[in-house]
Design a protein that fits this description.
The protein is an alpha+beta fold. It contains 6 helices and 6 strands. It has one domain. Strands 1, 2, 3, 4, 5 and 6 form a 6-stranded mixed β-sheet that branches. The chain is globular, with a radius of gyration of 16 Å.
């Protein structure tokens, strides 16, 4: 499936963005955040591989299987409840860090992507994946396509992490809830 369009701009390494057009990406959200599936606040609360604590990010997957693997983090036979939803995406300024040429152009090291970020944070140090994310966000990158590093993930499982998204273009990411089934506030889970 080839959904990348090539940019004609080439003034700097960050000007060769690839847009995601009319794509749908799944996510498995912890039940407590099902009322705010587009907020990124859950990721901001504790941080994530590609966002420091306090920085919202929206983590999605390219496949439902990957979303499930990410949500369970290696405990597939002791599955925890999640809310599954999908996002309609029409977003510019995405970098594909699964592509070796893109990584080379951006100076991205595979070990920075796969670093044990939680252990590094626990030791009071900033992980390389956060430094990379800050560098890319400063360069107006709206999001990245990255491999899944969840236990049990296959080499074909990939995620899209958004740092800059809204209901509107050029960074449009909308939750699909045509029938209004998602809860409207946290009271559904109290």
């Amino acid at each position: 499936m080839n959904f990348w369009a090539l940019s004609l701009r080439s003034w700097s390494v960050f000007d060769d963005f690839r847009p995601l057009r009319d794509e749908t990406y799944p996510n498995a959200i912890p039940l407590g955040w099902a009322f705010a599936p587009i907020s990124g606040d859950g990721a901001a609360l504790h941080g994530g591989r590609f966002n420091p604590t306090g920085r919202p990010a929206l983590y999605t997957s390219l496949t439902q299987q990957c979303a499930w693997t990410e949500a369970q983090q290696g405990f597939a036979f002791k599955a925890q409840p999640v809310t599954t939803c999908a996002y309609a995406v029409d977003c510019d300024d995405i970098e594909d860090l699964c592509d070796p040429d893109t990584c080379k152009r951006l100076g991205v090291n595979a070990t920075d992507l796969s670093c044990p970020w939680e252990d590094i944070v626990d030791r009071g140090t900033i992980p390389p994946s956060w430094e990379l994310a800050e560098r890319l966000m400063t360069a107006n990158v709206a999001g990245i396509v990255v491999p899944s590093f969840a236990p049990g993930a296959t080499v074909t499982m990939q995620n899209v992490v958004f740092w800059d998204w809204s209901e509107d273009r050029p960074h449009q990411v909308r939750v699909i809830d045509d029938f209004g089934r998602l809860p409207r506030d946290r009271s559904s889970w109290s």
